[in-house]
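Hi, here's the filled form for the chain we discussed.

Project: internal
Contact: R.S.
Residues: 119
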Amino acid sequence: MKFERFIRAERRPITGRRLAAAKRALQRQADAVALFPELQPTETPEQRCNRFDDASVATVQRWRDDEAERWRRARRELRALSTAQQAAVDRRWAQNRFMPKTAVYLLESIRAVKKGEQS
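And the returned structure, exactly as it came back:
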């Protein structure tokens, strides 16, 4: 079965440009709350970059987990079909080379075969 690999969660390297941008952002935050010292940002530019990377990695991992669950569901539904229906899903899946090979499209192909729709 054809499929497209999902993006991987990767941390971006901390470069001088990222540190300078983080430093400018922290300065803007500090200037915005200049009259309230308790609201001043306390993190360093490195900590800010790491916080953004942690959030990004967590988001991508959540997307990957959701996509993996969709693939498990699609395979479960495909196994529940009759042999003829499985062959019809296979044909529908393989015939269109422009259709993205994602779990959502496999589920849609299964739904269409169950309903008896023509490709």
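Let me know if anything looks off before we file it.
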